[in-house]
Amino acid sequence: MRLSARDLTLGYDQRPISEHLDLEIPDGRLTVIVGPNACGKSTLLRALARLLRPSAGQVVLDGEDIHAYPAKEVARRLGLLPQTSIAPDGITVADLVARGRHPHQRLLRQWSERDEAAVVKAMAATGVTDLSGRLVDTLSGGQRQRVWVAMVLAQETPIMLLDEPTTFLDIAHQIELLDLCLRLNREQRNTMVAVLHDLNQACRYADHLVAMKAGAVVAQGDPKAIVTAELIEDVFGLPCRIIDDPETHTPLVIPRSHHANRRNDVRQPLRR
Ligand SMILES: Nc1ncnc2c1ncn2[C@@H]1O[C@H](COP(=O)(O)OP(=O)(O)OP(=O)(O)O)[C@@H](O)[C@H]1O
Ligand SMILES: [Mg+2]
Questions:
Q1: Consecutive sets of 10 residues in the chain, 272 residues long: mean pLDDT of each?
Q2: Cβ–ligand 1 contact at 38 (below 6 Å)
Q3: Angle 165-170-175 (CA atoms, 0-180°, nearest 5)?
């Protein structure tokens, strides 16, 4: 495995979020992390990307502690789409996407054709080519999210960590983006890790699903093997049924509804 977490303890100001966490990211596969708000998904991703130093344990990238590498070297191997990012004031779409090429820039090296090609390709893949001259501040939420994804794609790293890449996207753009992740994975053998909140999309796209709760990994594996009503109830506290997704034959999570029953009750003739 190129990327793994060994006995990690992560936290902020002495407050632990995850303790003794072990995780191996399967090479060349698409891993999806799911779990309730505040369970530590983004914290884990930040640690895997070297942005957060663990208080114990280590993240191992290509056989070495990730903190043993210079930041730029990590950025040539691994790209992160953070959950929230703030664009520099007054920057255009093309300039922001071009920043994805910084890790590849060397002292005295000019912008190359390879850099240009990577930027053009990333913008086309995310459908933001027509926005290239626009100021990032003036874009809609979904347009802006696709520009950030383009920046990570332009980085052209063999490992990509995407924290809720589908946020702000309409359903068609969500599917388009997940299909793009799958394509990068299948065609270029990229190792992809995405945090998603949509469990049904997670089950559809994940080769490897990781379910987290309160900072710990509670289940992982093929979604078909691990997703049960018991697991979802345990992780999210949500009673549900699991049925077969008729389109992909992966698990489809149907939350139980009290409203449905109540509505039926109301339709009953009132007896006095
Ligand atoms: N910079 C920070 N300083 C202090 N506490 C933080 C910081 N970032 C996150 N936390 C806390 O750490 C816990 C885990 O947060 P994290 O962002 O990892 O959750 P998450 O699983 O990504 O949630 P979400 O689904 O809402 O994005 C939360 O209680 C959060 O308030
Ligand atoms: Mg998060």
A1: 97 95 98 98 98 97 97 96 94 97 83 94 96 97 95 97 95 94 92 98 98 98 98 97 97 89 61 66
A2: yes
A3: 60
